[in-house]
Amino acid sequence: MNLQRFEKLIRLMNAANIDAIAVNPGYSLRYLTNLDFHLMERPTVMVIRNDGKLVIILPKLESTRAEKVFSKDQIFTFSDNPSTWNDVFISALSSLNLSKNTIGVESTRLRVLEYQFLKNALPESKVIAADDVFANFRMIKDESEVNKMKRAAVIAQTALLETIKESVVGKTEKELASLLTINLLKQGSGELPFPPIVASGANSADPHATPTDRIINSGELLLFDWGASYEGYASDITRTFAVDEVDPAFQQIAEIVHKANQAGIHSGKPGVTAGSVDQSTREIINKFGYGEYFIHRTGHGLGLEAHESPYIFAENTQILEPGMVFTIEPGIYLPRKGGVRIEDNVVITEDGAISLTDLPRELIKIR
What we know:
Layout lengths: L2 H13 L4 E4 L3 H7 L11 E5 L4 E6 L3 H4 L8 E4 L6 H10 L7 E4 L6 H10 L4 E4 L1 H8 L4 H21 L9 H14 L10 E4 L19 E7 L2 E2 L2 E2 L2 E7 L4 H20 L6 H14 L11 E3 L6 E5 L12 E4 L2 E4 L3 E4 L2 E5 L4 E3 L9 E2 L1
Parallel strand pairs: 1-5, 3-4, 5-6, 11-19
Antiparallel strand pairs: 1-2, 2-3, 7-8, 8-11, 9-10, 12-13, 14-17, 15-16, 17-18
C-alpha cells in the first residue's frame, strides 16, 4: 500500500463527509496498491473506512497476490459458487461496522454487479458518486509520474516516425494503425492507452474516427491520434500531415490550429482556471472565423488513464496547480473535406507549463 496516497484519500474522504469508499479493479486501486486485478465476472472490491480501516473482497484465486499488500484479517475471499458471494460481502462489511453510512464510489468504474452486493450487505447505507474525491486524489502528479509520462511520449513519438518512414500512399488506414501499434510495442510501450486513430481525407474531419479500409491518397490530410504507456502512465498525441501537396485551405487551417495550440500551452500556469486555457485556444480559432468547426474541448487530464481530471473546457473553474498534466488539442474540422488537430501533453510547473511532447507541429509533407 502506498501510505502517502492512502493518507491523502482518507483526508479527501473526511473533507467530503464520506464514511467509506468502495473501489473495484481499475486505476485508483492500482494507484493505491500497485495491484492490477482483472475486471471480470467475479467481483473484487476494496472498502476503506474514513479512519483507515479496510477490507478487500475478492475471489480465492486472487488471494496470493492480495497477501503481498494486505494482512490476512483484511482479506475476505469467496469460491466460484456465486451463491456464497453475498454472505462474504456481509461478513466483510460487518467487520467495518458499517450500517447507516455514506459509501462513495467511482461512477464511471463501479458496475451494477458490485453495487448490488454493497446494497445487499448495507441496505440502510447510501451509495453515492464520489467522483470529486477520486479526481482530486490522482490529479497532482509527482516527479516520478511525470517522468514516466515523458518516457511514454518519447516511445509514442519514436513509433510514429518509424511508421511514416516509408511511403503511406496506397496503404489503408487499418494497415497504418496496425504498423503503428507494432512499432509502439517494439519501442517499449506497455498496454496501449487506446487504439490508434488513423484518419485520412474526409475521415480526418471526425475527431474520433475509427481506422477503415480507406486507401491513403496523395493530396489529402492524414491525422494520427495515438499514445503509449510506460509503467502504467499514458501519453496521448495528435499530429496531422499533408500527403504530398494539399489544398492551400488545409495549410491555412493547420497554421491556425498551430497558433491555437501554442496559445493554450503558453496560457497554462498555476493559479489560472482550466477554462481559461480552453478560452485561449478558442479565441484564436474564433478570430480566424473557424469557431463553429472547433467542436470539442481543448483537452483532458492525463495519467494512469488517457482521460482523467482536469478537463479543459471553457466553463471549468478548476484552478491549475503544479503537477497537473493534461492535453492541449485544438482542432478545426471541415465536414466532408478534412480536419487538423494538434495535441500535446503539458505539465504545470511552478511558473508555467512545459510540453512533454516535442514532435514538429507544422503541417509536414510526407509521401
